[in-house]
Amino acid sequence: MTAIPRTAPRVVAGAPLQRSLRSFTGRAAIFLVAAALLSAFLMPLAYMVMTSLKDQAQVADPAAPLYPASPRTFEYEGEALQIYAVPIDGVVRELAIVQKGRESSVMVDPANPAAGTFTWEGRWRTLTPAYTFDPKVENFELAWNQIEFPKLLRNTAIISLISTIGAVGSAVLVAYGFSRFRFRGRGTLFLVLLSTIMLSAQVTLVPTYILFTRIGWTGTWLPLIVPHFFANAYNVFLLRQYFMTIPTDLDEAAMIDGASPFRILWSVVAPQAIPAIVAVTLFHFFFAWNEFLMSLVYVGGNPDLWPLSLGMQKFAALYVTRPPLVQASAILAIIVPVVVFFLSQRAFMRGVVMTGVEK
Amino acid sequence: MIGQPDAPALSGSTVPRSRWRWTASRREAAWGWAFISPWIVGFVLFTAIPMAMALYFSLTDFDLRRPNEVQFIGLANYEQILRDPNVAQSMSITLRFAVLTVPPTIALSVGLAMLLNSPRLTGRRAFRTLFYMPTQIPLVASTLIWIGVLNEETGWVNGLLTLVGIQGPDWLNDPGWVLPSLGIVGLWGIGAMMLIALAGLQGIPSELYDAAKVDGAGAWTTLRRITLPLLTPVLFYSLLISCVGVSQYFIQAYVLTNGQPDASTLFYNVNLYREAFSFNQLGYASALAWVLFLIVLALAMLLFWSSSRWVYYAGERR
């Protein structure tokens, strides 16, 4: 009781204007902190975009600006001369160097070449070159053709779409089985299912590799697609948790009307679980799109079957000394996932929260 | 709860015996098994049998180049693991990486979630989306981006450091810097943990904060006595998935450094992959895989056991 009168005056302290000003500066400060963190966080993306549009010479030149640009030149008496920013009598002028010398150089003013050349006293190496914005779109052309982008995109799309259909369909069935039917051993089986989340792929990698070799599946997409038709623990868990929150009244009504369990799943339960099903679909799509290890093991030897992730890695290993090409190929590889993410982000992030919190 | 008057799909496949009848509960159980059967089949085919096979292979000298001359060699592979300097090296690297990166990653994701949970932050939804976005960039692409950003000569990180007068290291080629570099690269994936922490924060009843304010608690006390204890389930989950993540760490190390420089990024799985697919030692690789599995299992059990001491679940009886 005594606490209320003590704190109450503090809340109303200060004129309304002062208070709103203080809250404004507080808001601005928090916003600036978050914006600064975000810029640092997304800086690599800016690097990627900028580098992908540069030419190799600019990447290697420490004096070059961060944006894609090329040094400005001036054609003088049949020769392309480089233009520098030259301070003369406190004024910075952009001049082309006709003849470079250690202590003094011969220059010409591109704005007024008729005035002829003159000598500038000073070390030209201390001058900064003048640049002009010049994005090199050719990098994308080269990367596109070199990695055979359309082929990689097609491969990735086929693998991802088929395995997503299998993963979502099987996970819905299994989650329905775990959430709507009572049978002996259900709890134990569900625990076994959950514990497979912790199993790393490496443990089963070697024996499944031998298995797939024996049945002749290596060098095909089958090992990348077929296992997903048997329900993944993450997806089942998420869907089952969601199904549990759906009341069973409608199921029972449908049952009394003589609907089969499949019919109930299709017409009653699934329509109410759309957010979870969408989330699982997105999860698996991204997972399949980004998958690398299994592709490396099973189709690594056959470039015609490579998905994007593998094609990129091989391309980058080949062009490790040419960052612009590598970054251009990175843009090509991320464009589809990033666009899909921005289109679906709300459903997607709700799904992440569903898996994490309701554990 | 689902008792069908008739279950045609299943009744045909069962042999009617005397005194055995389709009761409602049996029918329900049959449907349940039928629905979960895809997972059961997959589990047996792609998890249980492969694991049993791996256990068997781990006791042999299975070499991919001569698959027809497999010899049973008992525990020799496991003895070899104890003596193999590459295994010791890879375990120590993986452990160092876990210690070096897991705590800061969790702390940062929770800190970021607190910032993004602040009601005074304008544009919270946009920030949340953008901080989450890098997790959806394919790992191979993001590692390639980071190879460029962390380049000693041309990368922007060293470029920024030069602006403030610091000579940046050769991040990915200096054995002393490569693990922290991989940790920095890993920070791009904190989005999922951040979202979960955010949901955890939003789940804390605001009455608790009101009560703390009335009692005159400061920001630090509120954090220590209310926010963190109520966030322990989230912290536990983050710790568990981080540890599992480190135990599966492969792509970044393979693409970024492939064990180099000087074997300083020879993570456990990089070593395992090499033994299996570069040196064709499938028997030995299977033994390595089983050792990893047992370690992760023990770690998970340890975490679950310890969780009863420090994780607070609302509504739980103490």
Describe this structure in words.
The complex is a heterodimer of chains A (359) and B (318). Chain A has 359 residues and is α+β, with helices and mostly antiparallel strands. In chain A, strands 2, 3, 4, 5, 6 and 7 form a six-stranded antiparallel β-sheet that branches. In chain A, α2 (16-52) crosses α15 (323-357). Chain A has three domains: 3-51; 73-129; 147-357, MetI-like fold (Orthogonal Bundle). In chain A, β3 and β4 form a beta hairpin. Chain A is built from 15 helices and eight strands. With 318 residues, chain B is an all-alpha fold. Chain B folds into two domains: 8-57, no CATH class; 84-310, MetI-like (MetI-like fold, Orthogonal Bundle), CATH 1.10.3720. Chain B contains 14 helices and no strands. In chain B, α4 packs across α9 (191-202), α4 (85-117) packs antiparallel against α11 and α11 (219-247) packs antiparallel against α14. The radius of gyration of chain B is 26 Å and the shape is globular. At the A-B interface, α1, α2, α5, α6 and α7 of A face α2, α4, α5, α6 and α9 of B.
Task: Name the CATH class of the largest domain in chain B.
Answer: Mainly Alpha
Per the CATH scheme, the topology name of the largest domain in chain A is MetI-like fold
> Tally the helices of chain B: what do you get?
14
Proportion of β residues of chain B? under 5%
Q: Structurally, how many domains make up the residues of chain A?
A: 3
**CATH superfamily grouping of the largest domain in chain A:** MetI-like
